[in-house]
Design goal:
The chain is globular. The chain has nine helices and nine strands. It has a single domain, classed as Rossmann fold (3-Layer(aba) Sandwich).
Length: 269
């Protein structure tokens, strides 16, 4: 089923599976949202991919879609395993499968690319490490303050987009601790990634440091890689001021690699 406009103004935060609107590139993209977020955050990219002929599948990550308490009890290994299962299902057809992720989804995309033969990886605003002293204190503070209120909402520059952005109003600190554990694992595996990579980051990001994007870019084992700065956006770029430009760049990146893949298959045939 292709992407459709909703009849009301409420953001659609449900999982999606968009089939190509015209023709098919014979490829799929696994689109992953951020921590405490929803598939809404990557829906604009999914829509752009479907319009470009790529199937776009945006699941809800384990622990999300319910209460903060449920998310707090979800280990990072459940996120990793859930993503790998979705990838296996998409790859079963034998077509190229890409992975695209925002924030936590970006980290999970990098983790998948280090352990599976993805056709390409797009990481947007991935927080490779949290600033001191969060990693050092969160293992203890999570018991003293289980939930941290999001007083100013999500990290989005566009005030209208920030006001309508769905997601949990609090950040479970147990989940932050799980994020720290995932970060440690991803940092150790970046050199194993050889798939074509697009690393994108909002210049005004207050959640993930822009330096993290540079470190990811420099640490990858990929020969084919790009670093994209979004100059008018903060952390949740797909729904911020640069969202449309980002979606187009991601679609162009994937379609170019699909064409290259088809040429290689043709030569081998």
């Amino acid at each position: 089923m292709g992407a459709k406009e909703r009849d009301d103004a409420r953001p659609d935060d449900s999982p999606f599976d968009f089939s190509p609107e015209s023709g098919s590139a014979g490829a799929a993209a696994l689109c992953l949202h951020g921590l405490t977020g929803t598939p809404y955050e990557v829906r604009p990219i999914g829509e752009a991919l479907a319009a470009a002929g790529v199937r776009a599948f945006g699941p809800r990550l384990p622990g999300h879609g319910g209460t903060p308490e449920t998310l707090a009890e979800t280990p990072y290994t459940a996120w990793v395993e859930g993503v790998r299962q979705h990838y296996a299902a998409l790859a079963a057809k034998g077509d190229p499968v890409f992975v695209v992720g925002l924030s936590l989804g970006g980290l999970l995309s990098l983790d998948l690319a280090a352990h599976a033969e993805v056709a390409g990886v797009v990481s947007i605003g991935a927080p490779l490490a949290l600033s001191w002293p969060i990693p050092q204190l969160v293992p203890v503070v999570k018991y003293l303050m289980p939930m941290l209120p999001k007083r100013s909402g999500s990290d989005i520059r566009d005030p209208a987009a920030r006001a309508r952005h769905p997601g949990l109003p609090v950040m479970p600190l147990k989940s932050v601790h799980q994020l720290v554990r995932l970060q440690r694992s991803v940092r150790q595996s970046l050199g194993r990634i050889t798939a074509p990579a697009l690393i994108a980051h909002g210049v005004h990001d207050h959640t993930a440091r822009p330096a993290d994007a540079e470190q990811i870019f420099e640490s990858l084992g990929s020969e084919e890689r790009e670093l994209l700065w979004l100059k008018n956006s903060a952390h949740v770029v797909p729904v911020d001021y640069d969202g449309a430009d980002l979606a187009k760049r991601v679609a162009d990146f994937l379609v170019a690699r699909i064409s290259g893949h088809a040429e290689e298959v043709g030569k081998r045939g």
